[in-house]
Design a protein that fits this description.
InterPro entries: HNH_nuc. The protein contains 9 helices and 12 strands. By secondary structure, the chain is an alpha+beta fold. The protein has 2 domains: 128 residues, no CATH class; 123 residues, no CATH class.
Length: 294
């Protein structure tokens, strides 16, 4: 199992997410946490106000589970939460349920606070809302070789986290597109989770909020087709026929056609046709001209 030293070592984990520090120091805590664990739950935790405001359902929960000095990291997606009691300050405690049994992703030898260094945690951290927008990059650790901070920083080779915008609801968009097209490429039929992506037809930046998460505004495309579609180098007709930009390089054209299909796998509905027309109109405005793939 992978050894992880900080939150950003976890591949594919984006913020925001809830991190829970479950430490089994006593027999009672071991029994309680083990019972919750078997039920795909984590229980009796006070929730930070920012997490209550953002909403937990559908978000990842990272469980920092420590027993006998060994910390194992588990991850799950929250599908349910309910109030299980109150704290001494009359604040609610919650139980969280995840969609599947807790998935182990690695182990760590560092503490919870070290693992999430750069985020504001309480003095005795138990539950933290991890959001890049609240991240403060820790001071650079200077090498003992006489270099100045500017010289050391100039070498590069370290992470510098900054503020970033997050596409709230993008996960819902992916689910909605998959309900229509499944997990296979809409053109080639290829089934490969590492290569097939949910692709917006009308770009997120240009679409109204409901259209940004609409399944009708999406296709499942292989990564190279996704990139070409976004660049207006390929498109689709109202009938779902593959269109190629007339100036497309021969090698790229061959790569597109190597998928063996020149027509989308399903008949398009009116909403999908509307979005594809918007895509072609934007391409035309950008000076692109298309022809049927032969």
């Amino acid at each position: 199992m992978l050894e992880l030293n900080r939150w950003s070592d976890i591949k594919g984990l984006d913020t925001p997410f809830l991190a829970i520090n479950a430490t089994n120091r006593t027999a009672a805590s071991r029994e309680t946490n083990s019972a919750f664990f078997r039920l795909r739950q984590a229980g009796h935790w006070e929730l930070p106000e920012v997490a209550r405001e953002a909403g937990i359902k559908g978000r990842p929960i990272l469980l920092f589970y420590t027993e006998k000095g060994q910390s194992t990291l588990y991850i799950g997606s929250c599908v349910r939460m309910f109030v299980s009691g109150e704290t001494a300050r009359n604040r609610p405690r919650y139980v969280f349920t995840v969609s599947r049994k807790w998935q182990p992703i690695g182990t760590t030898v560092v503490s919870f606070s070290t693992f999430f260094r750069g985020f504001r945690l309480s003095a005795n951290p138990t539950v933290a809302w991890i959001d890049k927008g609240a991240y403060v990059y820790p001071a650079l650790e200077m090498p003992d070789n006489g270099e100045t901070a500017a010289e050391f920083a100039g070498h590069g080779g370290y992470d510098q986290h900054g503020l970033s915008s997050l596409r709230v609801g993008h996960e819902r968009f992916v689910r909605n597109v998959r309900r229509i097209w499944g997990r296979c490429c809409s053109l080639t039929g290829l089934h490969s989770p590492n290569l097939v992506q949910a692709c917006h037809i009308a770009p997120w930046a240009d679409a109204a909020a409901p259209d940004r998460v609409s399944g009708n505004n999406g296709l499942m495309l292989c990564a190279h087709l996704h990139a070409l579609f976004d660049a207006h180098l390929i498109a689709f007709s109202d009938a779902g026929e593959l269109l190629l930009e007339r100036g497309l390089e021969p090698g790229v054209r061959d790569l597109v056609l190597a998928g063996g299909s020149t027509e989308l796998r399903r008949r398009l509905n009116k909403a999908q046709i509307h979005f594809l027309r918007e895509h072609r109109a934007a391409a035309k405005k950008a000076g692109k001209r298309f022809e049927l793939a032969l």
